[in-house]
Fold:
Amino acid sequence: MSIGLAVLLVILALLTGIAIRRGGQDFAPAFKRAIEQFAVLVPRMICALVAAGFIAEILPSEPISRMLGDGAGLVAIPLAVLVGLIIPAGPVVTFSIAAVFSGAGASDAAVIAFITSWSIFAMHRIFIFEIPLLGLLFLRIRVMSAMALPFVAGLLAIFAT
Structure:
C-alpha cells in the first residue's frame, strides 16, 4: 500500500468518525451517496486506465523522449504546455498519459508543464463550460492572469532537480 493511499484511508476514517459522532442521522445519506459515487466512478476509472494502457503501447517512446526529454532543453516546456492544452480528457486519462510520457523519457519539467497546462487551460473545459457559462471577457482575464503558470512550473522543476 502506498503512503498516499494510507493517508487517504486515515482521513476517510477520521471523517467517518466525525460524521458518526455528530449524529447518525446525517451519516446514512452521506454513506449512500459515497456508495453511489463509487459505483459510478470505478467502472469509468477502469476503462480510463485500460485506455491509458493502450495509449502507452501506441505512443512511440523515441519521439516523446526526443521532443520532451532532457535533451530537448527548454523547447520541451512550451511543447508540453501545448499538448496539455489540447488533451480532451479527464484526470484519470491525463495523469495516465503523463505517466506514459514520463516512462517514455520525458523530463520532469515537461511532465509538470503538461499537467499544469491541462489543469489550467484544457480546451474542452473552456469550450464546454467556461465560454458558455462565464463569457469571453472572463476567459480573457483568466487566461491572461494564469498564462505564465505552466511555464513557470516547468522552469521551477528544472531548477528544483
Observations:
- Residues 1-58 form one domain.
